[in-house]
Amino acid sequence: MKKFDVNLTVEALGFDELTAAERRLVDTASDATYRSYCPYSHFHVGAAILLDNDEIIAGSNQENAAYPSGICAERTAAFYAHSRYPEAAFRAIAIAARGTDTHWTAAPVAPCGACRQVLLEYENLAGAPVSVLLVGDGKVYRLPSVRSTLPLAFTEF
Ligand SMILES: [Zn+2]
What is the pTM of this model? Predict the structure, then answer.
């Protein structure tokens, strides 16, 4: 038997350590949480995607009484971004979340497995790593790529 490690380096940053572009993306994701429709989970999530045409596309989670019919903020943003600008490559994504009490999650929130899979496909289309910014209360985790969030990912062969 052989073993190998899959490593992930996460940079934990304060807001003042972000670039201006990253700060704008984080602010846009945070603003998007206020447009969430989450009467069932009461968990407000916002995502913002920076494209290589400098557009930022935001999305929020949209729930439904038929629960699986809802969709996460990340996929709301990703699907709209690619349908609106199919030629534009993803460059970065920021994700923020808060409860109904308006407090940001203490720990940065990470995308679910389905969103990681979807975002990975757009990263593959981009042909370059898509930076991932996970926002928490007073801190941001910066990951180098979507692929880093999904080790041993399923991709086309
Ligand atoms: Zn998700």
Answer: 0.95
